[in-house]
Amino acid sequence: MSRIARQHSAHLPPKTRATNFKEVVCGYTETEAVAEAGRCIQCKEPLCITGCPVRINIKGFIHLITKKDYKGAYETVTEANLFPSICGRVCPQERQCEAACVLGKKREPVSIGLLERFVGDTARQSGRHQTHEIVSTGTRAAVVGSGPAGLACAYDLAKAGVSVIVYEALHMPGGVLTYGIPEFRLPKEIVRSEIDNLKRLGVVIKTNSVIGRLHTIEDLMGRLSFDVVFIGTGAGYPSTLNVSGASLNGVMSANEFLTRVNLMHGNDFPRYATPVGAGKNIAVIGCGNTAIDSARTALRLSPDNVYIVYRRTLEESPARKEEIRHAMEEGVQFLFRTETKEIIADNEGWVIGMNCRSKDEAAAPDFLLNVDTVIYALGTMANPLIARTTPGLKTDKAGYIETEDLMTSIPGVFAGGDITRTKGTFTTVIHAMSTGRRAAAGMLKYLESRRQT
Amino acid sequence: MLALKCRVNVIIVTAMFEIIRVENFSPSTFLWEVIAPEIAQAARPGQFVIVRSDERSERIPLTIADFNTDEGTITLVIQAAGKSTDQMRAYRVGDSILDIVGPLGEPSEIENFGTVIVVGGGLGVAPVYPILRALKLHGCNTISIIGFRTKSLVFWEGRFRDYSDETIIVTDDGSYGQMGLVTQPLKEILAARHVDRVIAVGPLVMMRAAAETTRPFGVRTIVSINAIMVDGTGMCGSCRVNLAGEIKFACIDGPDMDGHLVNFDELIIRQRRFVKYEKQSIEMCKNRCQE
Question: What is the CATH number of the domain that holds A19?
Answer without folding.
Answer: 1.10.1060.10
